[in-house]
């Protein structure tokens, strides 16, 4: 298998398509290797009306949904870590010993170091510290992926997980809150239901935020990104508030993807338009 390219590390099936689906399609179409790593199978997520999934089968459904979405985006290397969805903050699932947030950090980092050293990517993309809206698994994957990025480059760290590899760049998702607020306002105007996490403005505003220093036009892959999102049938349908918005509004939001280059860092005031743009 060809090494290099991009390694995306996220917590649940559907996390990836919302924020980085267009970028994965963009680079896969250019012949660059793209690997998708998902920490859990989203076993305790909600189930959209009309889905055949049950709470007992949801993990299997969501695994296949992720594979289907990645096939649309041109990504064939899909991997799952063997951890369980922890559920939203404050729910009983948080206490499950199998939950991702309860996994020993060293075990999670070792599993990611093994993949990094095998795939030897040029760039890693993961959640920012806020996890978007504070989901504990999103926050956990941010910390573990960041630790693994650094550990994989250190030959003395996890010596049994392969030869050291220093990935050139580490990116965090960084959707600007003004853009997110704008799309939420459009959903309100359209009379759609707003997700509970987005309605809690105080909670959203309390989370750590970073301003993007990379914005990529993924308009050419917009249609595939929408198809990939709808592949996550247990989580979203064509009746979802996002999908009921006028196409030009959806395209304005989902046709761009925002990131923060955390390592090695971009010069202040510079806005890159490519993950591999010269610094």
Helix-strand blueprint:
Layout: E1 6-10, H1 15-29, E2 34-38, H2 58-73, E3 77-80, H3 105-119, E4 123-126, H4 131-134, H5 136-152, E5 169-173, H6 177-189, H7 196-199, H8 201-205, E6 214-217, H9 222-231, H10 247-254, E7 256-263
Parallel strand pairs: 1-2, 1-4, 2-3, 4-5
Antiparallel strand pairs: 5-7, 6-7
Termini gap: 29 Å
Overall pLDDT score: 92
| Rounded radius of gyration (Å) | 18 Å
Q: What proportion strand?
A: 5-15%
* Fraction in helix: 25-40%
Low-confidence stretches: none
- Sheet/helix structural class: alpha/beta
Cα shape: globular
DSSP summary: helix tally:
10
SS elements, strand count: 7
Helix-strand pattern:
EHEHEHEHHEHHHEHHE
Strand ordering within the main sheet: 3-2-1-4-5-7-6
Please summarize the sheet with the most strands.
7 strands, mixed
Protein architecture, described:
The protein has helices at 15-29, 58-73, 105-119, 131-134, 136-152, 177-189, 196-199, 201-205, 222-231, 247-254; strands spanning 6-10, 34-38, 77-80, 123-126, 169-173, 214-217, 256-263. It has 279 residues and is of the alpha/beta class. Helix 1 runs parallel beside helix 2 (58-73) and helix 2 (58-73) runs antiparallel to helix 9. The two termini are 29 Å apart. The mean pLDDT is 92.
């Amino acid at each position: 298998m060809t090494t290099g390219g991009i390694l995306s590390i996220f917590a649940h099936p559907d996390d990836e398509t919302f924020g980085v689906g267009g970028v994965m399609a963009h680079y896969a179409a250019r012949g660059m290797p793209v690997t998708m790593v998902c920490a859990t199978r989203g076993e305790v997520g909600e189930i959209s009306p009309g889905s055949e999934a049950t709470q007992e089968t949801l993990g299997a459904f969501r695994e296949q949904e992720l594979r289907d979405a990645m096939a649309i985006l041109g990504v064939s290397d899909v991997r799952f870590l063997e951890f369980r969805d922890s559920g939203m903050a404050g729910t009983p699932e948080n206490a499950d010993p199998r939950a991702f947030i309860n996994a020993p950090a060293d075990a999670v980092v070792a599993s990611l170091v093994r993949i990094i050293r095998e795939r030897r990517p040029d760039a890693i993309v993961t959640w920012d510290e806020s996890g978007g809206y504070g989901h504990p698994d999103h926050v956990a994957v941010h910390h573990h992926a960041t630790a693994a990025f650094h550990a994989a480059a250190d030959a003395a760290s996890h010596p049994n997980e392969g030869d050291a590899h220093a990935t050139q760049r580490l990116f965090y998702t960084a959707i600007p809150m003004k853009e997110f607020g704008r799309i939420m306002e459009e959903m309100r105007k359209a009379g759609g239901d707003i997700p509970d996490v987005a309605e809690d403005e105080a909670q959203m505003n309390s989370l750590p935020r970073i301003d993007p220093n990379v914005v990529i036009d993924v308009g050419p892959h917009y249609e595939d990104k929408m198809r990939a999102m709808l592949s996550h049938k247990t989580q979203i349908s064509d009746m979802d508030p996002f999908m009921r918005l006028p196409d030009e509004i959806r395209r304005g939001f989902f046709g761009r993807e925002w990131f923060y280059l955390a390592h090695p860092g971009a010069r202040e005031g510079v806005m890159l338009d490519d993950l591999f743009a010269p610094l």
